[in-house]
Amino acid sequence: MVNRRKFIQQSITGSAGLLAGNTMLAATKAVSGSAVFPIVISTWDFGREANEGAWAVLAKGGRAVDAVEAGVRVTEAAGNNFTVGLGGLPDRDGRVTLDACIMDDKYGCGSVMCLENILHPVSVARLVMDKTPHIILVGEGAQAFALANGFKKVDLLTPASKKAWKEWLKTSKYEPVINIENKMNSGKDSLPGRKYNHDTIGMLAIDQQGNVSGACTTSGMAFKMQGRVGDSPVIGAGLYVDNEIGGATATGVGEEVIRIAGAHLIVELMRQGFTPQQACREAVERIVKRSPAKAKEMQVGFLALNKQGVHGAFCLQEGFSYAVKSASETQMHTGQHYF
Q1: Given phi > 0 = left and psi -120 to 50 = alpha, else beta, which region is 124?
Q2: Could you confirm whether 200 is annotated as catalytic?
Q3: Do 320 and 335 form a contact (C-beta atoms < 8 A)?
Q4: Average pLDDT, the chain
Q5: Whole-number Å distance between alpha carbons of 41 and 202
Q6: What gap in Å lies between CA 290 and CA 329, rounded to an integer?
Q7: Which of 50, 53, 138, 319 is most deeply packed, by most CB within 10 A?
Q8: Which residues contact 326 (CB under 8 A, 6 or more apart)?
Q9: Which of 28, 97, 200, 249 is catalytic?
Q10: Sequential DSSP letters for 85-121
Q11: With 70 as the cut, is the pLDDT of residue 185 above it?
């Protein structure tokens, strides 16, 4: 039985927690000011071109879910990076397998994993969401579904990615390199003969109606074991959207993001009153707490957007960048980092 003194202490503690939560919520509103949308944000430098594709939809009053699909399709088809879509580095057997997911403002979601020879996995994921009772299709089943819906087979292994794979075969040694996506796409640490990692494009958008959606697509970890899937197509890990709160996406070593259900965690923290950046930082700190030594040797970054259009990011290591596009802003931002 709770005595009177203990009851009073618990009441005070509870009131203090409620006050702290309300204070944090007030701080979030103060940061956000008036709502900013439409807006689109996406991971890494190649997000700039992807944002333009999304903005073409948003500026015309289109839905956020259509915008994020259109946006990441730009990166999937570009063929000039080694981490997404056409030209993505293959698995250790030389097979390019793609993963993608999409989530709309009504909890609709679709995902494909280990999809081969299809140029736009995000659009296949969209059809899974729109046309089936399922959320995830994988491998041969995902490809059969794509072909049945009008997609054509495409050879995704470009001369450059094939050359990189053959160079890797000389040692067959996988060692993740922090921020390799920027190094490879900027000409530094260029192919062939270097160590290769992986990455993704994650995108979040709010349309003119104030609705939130997101998409995430990748070719996964370079030279991975056949069948490996990271966080990118996993709803709640690499991507999550709640139209009452906002959305979050992740980039980096997917296994670590899955362990903490990163994107869902961030959205729930924002529900509690955290700003997007505060929520992203908390997710990063959970990864560090689990294994501090391991965290120093990898990159994981989180990106979030709340319902008011406030964005924020946080990552393990220096170097994570993200692109923002709205009526008043077109620029790159650098995520704050733990180490």
Answers
A1: alpha
A2: yes
A3: yes
A4: 86
A5: 8
A6: 37
A7: 50
A8: 36, 37, 38, 39, 40, 309
A9: 200
A10: STT----TTS--EEEEEEE-TTS-EEEEEEEES-S-H
A11: no
